[in-house]
Design goal:
alpha+beta, seven-stranded mixed β-sheet, about 450 residues, 7 helices, six-stranded antiparallel beta barrel
Amino acid sequence: MAVTQLSDADIAGMLRRVYNAFENNIFPVVTRLLAQIEKAMPKSRYRIKWGGENAYFPVTIGQPGGLYSSPGGALPPSTMALERQAQETVKQLYVRRQVAGLAIVGTQSREAAFKSLATKIVREASVASKLGMQRMLHGDSRGIIDLVLTTGTTTAVVYRPYGITGSGQGGLTLEPGQTYQIIDPGTATARTVTGGPGNNRVTLASYTSTGDNATLAFGAGESVAGMTAADIVSLATAASTAYSATAGLTSSQAGEINGLTNIINRGASSTYYSLHGVSSATAGNQLWDGVRMVAVTDTPNQNPSEDDIFTLSQKILGRSGYDPTERPADFLLVTTPGLVRSLAQSVVGQRRLAQEVELKFGYKGVQIAGMPAIADYWCPSGTIYVLHLPSLFKINAKDFGYVMYNGAGPWRWVDGYDSYETSWGMYCQTGTVNRTAHGMITGYTDDSRFTHVV
């Protein structure tokens, strides 16, 4: 008797798909810097509150002098240390999700899905906000994602995350599926896009990495005209109509929060002289500035050492009066995973082990020069920050939550479609009450790329 042969196609209809009740998120959610700043706030001496327009706070930037000698008993003239009124506005940050009505119905029962769609959307929105904030904390408030290196029309090669030279992989800050504008830095206007979602926006379909360059592939049928090298890549919404070439202005396209690049004044750039409405370029305000060192110029060599961190600590002490060696728990060293490894290796020969320290929210760090050091892969390559946590602030005018008005509810019907949408928002800002309490070293050799970019 002949044997009946059954193919995979023949039995496919008899098989049942089995969905396991777990979800594994591949993308790493690592927000160490954000966590340490948020956790430090309750213990901070500074409570910066927003009152509907701007948040104002005084800063003393002059030396409190005035001690004179007079053998005849003559009183000296009255003097006061220079004070300035600093101010800051909040930034409006949003996450939005849309979903078809059929998808909501289809995921309500356990038989149809192992997790309700609403639960999944809410969790992803929360993670998106944290990762976005973590990225912004390393930027300069202008929302620069990358710079254009070479151009095409349906593709482009980009590099320099945050617009910083040598800052690492071009794909570090890219988000496939999002909409961007390519900005002409000379005119601060977006390049013309054909076939995009409107307002000269282009959709990033995907990207591929080669070294520290990333080749962008735009959405089907989308093209960008007139791109040139050094154009700015920036996230954009349908309402993104202007871009500011000056950091910190409320008219900046992305309207992002202040980041360490402009808070510490990376590169002593004139772009970052002004912070919170006080400019270090103004006579008498020279002290309103971060402490900076450059590898090789201010250190013995291109590789980091604990002695470099001690030197930076002493410079911070001399400028601000805060001593990292006296109160190391008030400070945080932030750098890339590659430089954390280099620093840890540099102290292993002096100590049996590179000591671990417990950080907030369950994170751990390595102790360098007495301070906890964390590895943050969003950090620009070759950079080490030493931050005085009590001098940093985060204004929370509105904590992350649903965008609702007058009891309308968090879910809204998309007009003309069997679909719904929900949005989350937060009104916040970051900054410092004392720029001199923070320092950075840039320009180290940092060839390791321990990031999500492949």
